Amino acid sequence: MKSKQPKKPLTIEQKINRRTFISLGTFVVLSGAAYGGWSWLKNSPKEIRTATAGAKAPLRRALNKTELFFRNFLSNNNLVKTYPKEMAAKVVRHNSDIGSGGTPDMANWKLEIKKQSGEVLNISLDEIKALPKTEIVFDFKCVEGWDQISYWGGVKFADFIEHFKLGDQTQLAYVGMATPDKKYYVGLDMPSAMHPQTILAYEMNAKPLMPKHGEPLRLIIPVKYGIKNLKRIGSITFNNQRPPDYWAEQGYDYYSGL
Ligand SMILES: Nc1nc2c(c(=O)[nH]1)N[C@H]1C(S)=C(S)[C@@H](COP(=O)(O)O)O[C@H]1N2
Ligand SMILES: [Mo]
């Protein structure tokens, strides 16, 4: 009878050599893949400067996918949590004042609405105050890491649109808003602008807005971070392209949703 020769076990040295070979091979393959990925990203085109800080297009596409997910998931008329008025801060925090420093030139202030056709409407504060008033108490969040429950009053953006017969403009994808001097500006996706809690506010804590909080009119958009809540609105535009956005140009997320 012939018995099978048992396989000779590998010596320690052979085992080590084998493992070294496998690790080295894996390292080489993964390094190659990493280098390939990196050079693909490096050689890919940059995005247009106005909407972003010139991020590489594939990275921006990934962010846009995330944005789309959250848009569908959160923005479809889901309401941001609100609080009783008594919970609102009496002393309201104040942040940066780009384009909204000092006091506004009220003698000349009119809200300028620029339709996509180029047609312009100039609307006075009295006309805005004559519309039905909406109030909101919500947790205002700044990307710098603070938040505060605050209380605002004004006209719902959707009501404003309806009153001034701007419904056709809401077929476009974006709204742009800027201070009278155009130094601070934000771009908003239409669903967030038309969200039922988005208001053009002229009051804080039931009193006219103070200059440092955006007198005479500011945006309150609770579905977004503070950076999008533009103080002292001078003009509003409608467009299918992303309007320029001050902080997106510095690299912040264009959507800046919560
Ligand atoms: N015109 C203008 N609006 C602005 C800003 C600004 O610098 N200029 N800063 C934004 C930021 S980052 C925040 S957190 C809020 C702060 O609003 P508040 O000063 O009323 O608290 O305003 C936003 N709107
Ligand atoms: Mo902020």
Separation, N- and C-terminal Cα atoms:
78 Å
What is the CATH level 1 assignment?
Answer: Alpha Beta
Low-confidence stretches: none
Give the CATH superfamily: Oxidoreductase, molybdopterin-binding domain
Backbone shape? elongated
Enumerate the strands of the largest sheet in spatial order, edge to edge or round the barrel.
Answer: 2-1-10-5-6
Number of helices: 5
Tally of separate domains: 1
Chemical compounds bound to the protein: the ligand Nc1nc2c(c(=O)[nH]1)N[C@H]1C(S)=C(S)[C@@H](COP(=O)(O)O)O[C@H]1N2, molybdenum atom
Domain Oxidoreductase molybdopterin-binding: 102-247
Keywords: Membrane, Transmembrane, Transmembrane helix
Transmembrane segments: 21-41
Pfam families: Oxidored_molyb
Topology (SSEs and partners):
Blueprint: H1 12-43, H2 57-75, E1 111-114, E2 120-123, H3 125-129, E3 134-141, E4 147-156, H4 157-163, E5 174-178, E6 185-189, H5 190-193, E7 199-204, E8 207-208, E9 218-220, E10 235-239
Parallel strand pairs: 1-10
Antiparallel strand pairs: 1-2, 3-4, 4-7, 5-6, 5-10, 7-8, 7-9
The structure holds ligand MTE and molybdenum atom.
The ligand Nc1nc2c(c(=O)[nH]1)N[C@H]1C(S)=C(S)[C@@H](COP(=O)(O)O)O[C@H]1N2 is lined by residues 93-100, 142, 179, 184, 213, 226-227, 229-232.
